[in-house]
């Protein structure tokens, strides 16, 4: 696998564009489009919050049907959530506008929105934006980057990643973009994520791969414990790499699976590290657990602990908060066998052994915890399973951002 520059336009046959449609923001782009020159097979995962935005309901129907999408259109600023029948009507109007502007099947148009809940979309601006986007479509890496910027809300930077692999003697590319900074505690994937590939693969296998990968990537991040109404991950594959279609779980499938997992994990970590107001990516690895599920439960419990997140912000080696969060996770383990280690670019330090503090330097621990990425390794000595979760520290700015969000 080779990591390359780019995002959603890295794979063959994909175009992107961004425009300033004035959906809610002034002075910045707020609509994006991703387009494939040929129809794609699609897969997706969506929020399990029972309060679902209209685009989530729309995209589920498209992905779970036999439609072959060619276009995704995204707006930021307004979420089109809790908008009733009118909100579903906006999705239909968006699809019609895309079909007209691009000469594609409206049944396969995918839509996504992010922003304030409860506001109605200015559909005239959306439709005007679609016309403008269709004229700006470009296959360049820069066009993909502009699209990644247009979908941001409180994100501080765009999130993109792309890789190439060789399958059946052909170069296959996978690229993606995502956005998300707050209201992130996915129960499926992320706020918004879009992954494109030129691989030829059966739709059922693509969906199976996406569903499995999400559980170990986007479902293992948290910023604030809030599962969004709009969580959507869409994956498109247009087959333009020219490989023989993957129809079973052979070595080619495994190679693609690992590359797709890498793309999703990198996008997930970017989101966790860019949590609203965050100064650090907080990674928790649970090792030697009895089961994978127990390792996941424990690691997520630690990254979602407000007290632990605050300690990371203060560069405070308050290991008691970590052990406490592990203890109320619901997983069973012996606290008197737990070892905890802090790691970062500044070094590595074990702070407790068998549930008891070691004689460590607080000054050295603070130095380790002052880096932009901090890792806690929890060895619970029960088995051979491992899981990793990603979060961020909790800062004063998180409260400021969310106190002012609607204004």
Automatic annotation (TrEMBL):
GO cellular component terms given for this protein: cytoplasm
Principal localisation: cytoplasm
Gene3D superfamilies: arginine biosynthesis bifunctional protein suprefamily, ArgJ beta chain, C-terminal domain, L-amino peptidase D-ALA esterase/amidase
Site feature (Involved in the stabilization of negative charge on the oxyanion by the formation of the oxyanion hole) residues: 114-115
Enzyme class label: transferase
Catalytic activity reported: L-glutamate + acetyl-CoA = N-acetyl-L-glutamate + CoA + H(+); N(2)-acetyl-L-ornithine + L-glutamate = N-acetyl-L-glutamate + L-ornithine
EC code: 2.3.1.35, 2.3.1.1
This protein's pathway: Amino-acid biosynthesis; L-arginine biosynthesis; L-ornithine and N-acetyl-L-glutamate from L-glutamate and N(2)-acetyl-L-ornithine (cyclic): step 1/1; Amino-acid biosynthesis; L-arginine biosynthesis; N(2)-acetyl-L-ornithine from L-glutamate: step 1/4
Binding site residues for substrate: 153, 179, 190, 276, 402, 407
Alphabetical list of Pfam families matching this protein: ArgJ
Any single GO BP term: ornithine biosynthetic process
SUPFAM superfamilies attached to this UniProt entry: DmpA/ArgJ-like
Keywords: Acyltransferase, Amino-acid biosynthesis, Arginine biosynthesis, Autocatalytic cleavage, Cytoplasm, Multifunctional enzyme, Transferase
Listed GO MF terms: L-glutamate N-acetyltransferase activity; L-glutamate N-acetyltransferase activity, acting on acetyl-L-ornithine as donor
UniProt keyword annotation of DNA-binding present: no
Compartments in which it is found: Cytoplasm
HAMAP family: ArgJ
Homology family: Belongs to the ArgJ family.
Task performed by this protein: Catalyzes two activities which are involved in the cyclic version of arginine biosynthesis: the synthesis of N-acetylglutamate from glutamate and acetyl-CoA as the acetyl donor, and of ornithine by transacetylation between N(2)-acetylornithine and glutamate.
NCBIfam families (alphabetical): ArgJ (TIGR00120), PRK05388.1 (NF003802)
Subunit note: Heterotetramer of two alpha and two beta chains.
Identification of the protein by name: Arginine biosynthesis bifunctional protein ArgJ
Organism: Eubacterium oxidoreducens
């Amino acid at each position: 696998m080779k990591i390359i520059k780019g995002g959603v336009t890295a794979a063959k046959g994909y175009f992107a564009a961004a425009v300033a449609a004035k959906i809610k923001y002034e002075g910045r782009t707020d609509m994006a489009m991703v387009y494939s020159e040929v129809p794609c097979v699609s897969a997706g995962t969506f929020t399990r919050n029972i309060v679902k935005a209209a685009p989530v309901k729309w995209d589920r129907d498209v992905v779970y049907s036999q439609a072959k999408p060619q276009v995704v259109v995204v707006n930021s600023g307004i979420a089109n959530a809790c908008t009733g029948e009118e909100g579903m009507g906006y999705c239909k109007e968006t699809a019609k506008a895309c079909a007209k502007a691009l000469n594609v099947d409206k049944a396969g148009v995918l839509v996504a929105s992010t922003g304030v809940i409860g506001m109605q979309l200015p559909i005239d601006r959306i439709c005007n934006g679609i016309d403008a986007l269709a004229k700006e479509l470009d296959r360049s890496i820069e066009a993909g980057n502009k699209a990644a910027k247009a979908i941001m809300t409180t994100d501080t930077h765009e999130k993109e990643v792309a890789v190439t692999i060789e399958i059946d003697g052909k170069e296959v590319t996978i690229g993606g973009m995502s956005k998300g900074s707050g209201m992130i505690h996915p129960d499926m994937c992320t706020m918004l994520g879009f992954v494109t590939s030129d691989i030829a693969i059966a739709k059922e296998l693509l969906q199976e791969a996406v569903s499995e990968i999400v559980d170990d990537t986007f479902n293992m991040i948290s910023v604030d414990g809030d599962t969004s109404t709009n969580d959507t991950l869409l994956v498109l594959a247009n087959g333009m790499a020219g490989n023989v279609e993957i129809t079973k779980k052979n070595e080619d499938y495994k190679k693609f699976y690992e590359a797709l997992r890498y793309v999703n994990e990198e996008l997930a970590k970017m989101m966790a590290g860019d949590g609203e107001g965050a100064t650090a990516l907080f990674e928790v690895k649970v090792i030697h657990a009895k089961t994978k599920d127990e390792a996941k439960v424990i690691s997520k419990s630690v990254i979602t602990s407000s007290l632990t997140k605050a300690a990371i912000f203060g560069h405070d080696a308050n290991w008691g908060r970590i052990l406490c969060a592990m203890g109320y996770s619901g997983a069973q383990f012996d606290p008197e066998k737990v070892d905890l280690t802090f790691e970062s670019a500044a070094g590595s330090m074990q702070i407790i052994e068998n549930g008891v503090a070691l004689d460590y330097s607080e000054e050295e621990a603070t130095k380790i915890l002052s880096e932009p990425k901090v890792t806690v390794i929890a060895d619970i000595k029960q088995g051979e399973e491992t899981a990793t979760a990603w979060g961020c520290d909790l800062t004063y700015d998180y409260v400021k951002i969310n106190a002012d969000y609607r204004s």
